[in-house]
Amino acid sequence: MKYVSNIKSPADLKRLTIEEMEVLASEIRTLLIRKLSVHGGHCGPNLGMVEATIAMHYVFNSPEDKIVFDVSHQSYTHKILTGRADAFIYPEHYDDVSGYTEPSESEHDHFIIGHTSTAVSLASGLAKGRDLCGNRGNVIAVVGDGSLSGGEALEGIDWAAELNSNFIIVVNDNQMSIAENHGGLYQGLEQLRQSNGMCENNMFKAMGLDYIYVDKGNDIDALIKAFKQVKDIDHPIVVHINTLKGKGYALAEEDKETWHWSAPFDIETGNLTYNSDAEDYDDLTALHLLEKIKQDKKVCAITAGTPGVWGWTPERRQMAGAGFIDVGIAEEHAVALASGIAKAGGKPVLGLCSSFLQRTYDQISQDLCINDNPATILVLWGSLSSMTDVTHLCHFDIPLLSGIPNLVYLAPTNQEEYLAMLDWSIEYREHPVAIKVPMGATNHATRPVPAHFSDINKYEKVESGSDVAIIALGAFFALGENVVRLLKEQGINPTLINPRFITGIDTEMLDNLKSDHRIVVTLEDGALEGGFGEKIARYYGPSDMKVLCYGAKKQFVDRYNIAEFLADNRLVDTMIVEDIIKLL
Amino acid sequence: MKYVSNIKSPADLKRLTIEEMEVLASEIRTLLIRKLSVHGGHCGPNLGMVEATIAMHYVFNSPEDKIVFDVSHQSYTHKILTGRADAFIYPEHYDDVSGYTEPSESEHDHFIIGHTSTAVSLASGLAKGRDLCGNRGNVIAVVGDGSLSGGEALEGIDWAAELNSNFIIVVNDNQMSIAENHGGLYQGLEQLRQSNGMCENNMFKAMGLDYIYVDKGNDIDALIKAFKQVKDIDHPIVVHINTLKGKGYALAEEDKETWHWSAPFDIETGNLTYNSDAEDYDDLTALHLLEKIKQDKKVCAITAGTPGVWGWTPERRQMAGAGFIDVGIAEEHAVALASGIAKAGGKPVLGLCSSFLQRTYDQISQDLCINDNPATILVLWGSLSSMTDVTHLCHFDIPLLSGIPNLVYLAPTNQEEYLAMLDWSIEYREHPVAIKVPMGATNHATRPVPAHFSDINKYEKVESGSDVAIIALGAFFALGENVVRLLKEQGINPTLINPRFITGIDTEMLDNLKSDHRIVVTLEDGALEGGFGEKIARYYGPSDMKVLCYGAKKQFVDRYNIAEFLADNRLVDTMIVEDIIKLL
After folding, report:
1. Stretch (H or E) spanning B172
2. Chain B neighbors of A346, CB-CB under 8 A
3. B125 and A542 in contact by Cβ < 8 A?
4. Which member of A320, A451, B44, B194 has the greatest number of CB atoms within 10 A?
5. What's the CA gap between A184 and A171, in Å, rounded?
6. Rounded Cα distance, A121 and B130, in Å
7. Cβ of A155 and B346 within 8 Å?
């Protein structure tokens, strides 16, 4: 590693020749593949952006010139060039940096970013703020890798034309999203690539922006020339660069979808280092829906650019045919589309990761629930034990959805209950239904599961006891069972309830508890504020019932240790029992 | 009225000649102006779409062919032609129909729509559902009047190109949003108009769509020819029609912004029938911010296409210069832009109507609050006494915002407290701040107001009493004062608290209440589920304190009588007192 170790800041980079930078690119690629093989992370996006990032830091003067990376999952080379190379060179330092840009790490990072399609808008704010404050410098937004189809990105690109000052949008066109790209604009990008940027109907020009094209998006020399051409420009411009996703790692170049993000792997074979054969809820979902689609042409599965999140491998997508719809990164559209399909008599099942569902509150409320169209939404990975990056927290789906009228939000506690809910929901025509799909390995029912859930807000009393009632929601039902077991060891005989419905209260059951219970405990696998437990607390507010609500307190946490986080929120059976006994 | 009274369904329209339809258009225009002058409503959008709506219903066969209107505020002529003319002919029937499409009124309406930019996605769902179910018929989305810049519209247009079957997008280009259009795509539309649809860089073609242009968008004959050309087409196509907003009412043609929506007015002069001189919070806000902008170039006010909602008249916008930013209908972009400006050292104040704020949950969480950038968001019209159309309810901003970490959400109770909070927030650099701006006529402080609110979650105890404490949030502080007065008449001496902070709990004050209070009452001007009161109920859950929470129960209500609605939710001082006394 002749060069990479000596680059402590972009100033060191500027001393290199083109040829030296090409060697540097190769060193960085080696580091990336090595770290990713051990640590996991975003492979393809970073491998494709090595040269462009070198060229940007060579031409521009970060941090006075500000580079904002969309999703910021393609910022690894940027980190290496801005004083954080150690976190890619030394395994013991691999965890020193976030997988995304992080202002607390470096003055070269301007935002914490993890959701797609935000960089143009955020960076245009830096540009506008610069102008308002009378400051100088280039502002560069780097967007691509499927993000362009997101509404926020398109809003930002549209507005950028009004910014009558320096603003550079680098469109990293690697012809891919996580899976293949979807949407008509990618046809337009293809025509631009094929015509060396010269074709009619350039969407960027049609939206009022200046434009240049760089065909060799992995050629440092060509990129430097392009960036020099736009540096200090006095108006907004798009620099469209044609890059190769996964470049330099043959397996990633060949299978771009698999290698968008990868768990640790063997560099030579590409095989994952740890491979679990246990069936999980993602696989279960895709396989179950695939059967449904085969049996009934009206059923369709919809994803917004993340088929892999719920088991939809390329093979399964192909088998589903017209019954599988990937709208690309366009969550808002996905919800409205599902509402329209349901209205037309179809049976749409939309799968959205809890974190990305956050983009669709208004669509779920307005397009879906006011219209009361019977679509199904599967809320995926919604758990405190899910992704731990602050930008990908899956803590907030209960507060987000549970206050929306007309929506039935269900929390299954095991595989059989989940599939019964899903089957029922697909045929149910009264209301939209959301299901909080459990995460990870499947678990089985130990009690009978009903086939219908039309009796809205009817809880299941699993065990009848007295004094203490545990209302254990969804994935935390197992925690509730443990609390019950521990209480029984203490001579307390509690009631155990599986509420099933997140969006309402079984007033009859709760009223009945008043006669011989003094404490009701709620357990939910998500944020407490605005959540399920608070509904119970409010319901019992005017009564003598004491209520203890368990969930995550209000905070943004980043890259947390899950066990420590749960303990910090007293989400541990022994702690809960301790609290109950203290209150009894 | 020779023709309009005889049109009971589109079939009756199809028997008319072009000349007769032109007379019909003139009759409809007379009806629209007459009803709007008495009833109020959307003037310009409907006056501009009379001919296009006639032509669509002449060519297509609704309801087998399905027409979906974006925002659906331009659907009045559609209602007249589909059996609902009486609601426009007879004043006693004016309120028989909604101002938006409403499936419960007619089989010709497919969705309840009131927010912008949703029609393309919803209609594409109808088209996809049609295909999945093996049905037939045209699906037509009508979008325009500023809506194209919204992310959901752009996501939908992008995805439409993938729909390999019949789908017609009518772009109603009246060169306006509510105010003037913003965003580069409107430059592109202008070039298309100037070139009769033939210019290079057609954004629709760039996004993979077929396209035709109709220059005479208010000429029934030309429109019929165009719609016949696309009827039963086997792929998606855009029909771009050039219409005149406000056509046929000279005042509305001249001043398109004022006449987008109007309260009842005198037809001859255009003067409003009822005109209040009382200062309101909208005017107060714009005037105050205008002064701030004049004094400090770093301050800017941002709107997403709705400047009039918070007092920003064209004159005031002009006076603010670069300090006023209208991003067009693009709420998501507006939030990210504000975050970027704040990061760059600017002092952005973003005004969003509570109902439209719903589109920005993810941007507020990710772009703003995770980054903890100190922008100010003014939540406008957020009240149960605000707009009463189901699509425009302003009930949900507390549940939406109050669970987001880092955000300080403030609820002022009077004019002086509001301006102190606003002044403080503009200079505060620690966290993003949202302020729930009161609605309607201003009211004055009767007690001193602090200049700083940095002591986060510190409530104000306004009156000290015992037994009962009333925590009266924001606009409902006045309700709290009335409850206190009535309780005193009953010999009860309650505590009165102005919490000021929606997003947190003053644990010290709440703990102290335990010693000599038995009941805590919360009052909030919004939905109960996930709201402020539930936080208090949860906090007191393990204690002996009884908690009564007042707000709106979970439901979508439409065109409600506000007084009846408040009574139905027991949001009346005498009812609250009755409940308290019963519980004491």
Report:
1. strand B167-173
2. 128-129, 132-133
3. no
4. B44
5. 16
6. 36
7. no
Count of Cβ atoms closer than 10 Å to residue B582 Cβ: 9
Q: Reduce the DSSP state of residue B409 to 3 states and report it.
A: strand
* Inter-chain CB pairs, A–B, below 8 Å: 424
ipTM, 2 dp? 0.97
Question: Closest to B542 (Cβ–Cβ): which among A333, A346, A547?
Answer: A547
**Given pLDDT bands bounded at 50, 70 and 90, which one contains residue B178?**
confident
**Most B CBs within 10 Å: which of A72, A158, A352, A353, as the mutation test of the B interface?**
A158
For the record, the structure tokens of A119 come out as: 């960089």
Instruction: State whether B206 and A203 contact (CB < 8 Å).
Output: yes
pLDDT for position A279 = 87
Surface-to-core class of residue B182, CB atoms within 10 Å of its CB (0-12 exposed, 13-18 middle, 19+ buried): buried
Cβ-contact B355, B394 below 8 angstroms:
yes
Tell me the backbone φ, ψ of residue A435, rounded to 5 degrees: -125, 130
Location of structure tokens 């926020």: A152
CB B134 within 8 A of CB B106: no
Nearest to A128 among B122, B185, B340 (CB): B340
CB-based contact (8 Å) between B128 and chain A?
Answer: yes
pTM for the full model?
0.97
Q: What is the pLDDT of residue A278?
A: 81
Residues in chain A with CB shorter than 8 Å from the CB of B348 are 125, 129
**Sequence-separated contacts (24+) of B280-284 with Cβ below 8 Å:** B280/B311, B280/B439, B280/B440, B280/B441, B280/B442, B281/B415, B281/B418, B281/B437, B281/B438, B281/B439, B281/B440, B281/B441, B281/B442, B282/B309, B282/B310, B282/B311, B282/B380, B283/B311, B284/B311, B284/B415, B284/B418, B284/B419, B284/B442
Query: Phi, psi at residue A370, to the nearest 5°?
Result: -60, -35
A200 CB burial (10 A radius; 0-12, 13-18, 19+): middle
- Strands annotated E in B1-64: 41-42
For the record, the structure tokens of B460 come out as: 């104000």
Mark the ranges of chain A whose per-residue pLDDT is less than 70: none
Q: Taking Cα atoms as reference points, which of B56, B442, B533 lies closest to residue A537?
A: B533
pLDDT of residue B479: 98
Q: Do B541 and A554 touch (CB under 8 A)?
A: no
Contacts of A326 in chain B (CB under 8 A): none
User: What is the three-state SS of A383-411?
Assistant: CCCCCCCHHHCCCCHHHHHHCCCCCEEEC
**Touching A: B residues 376-405, CB under 8 Å:** 390-391, 396, 399-400, 402-403, 405
A336 Cβ under 8 Å from any chain B Cβ: yes
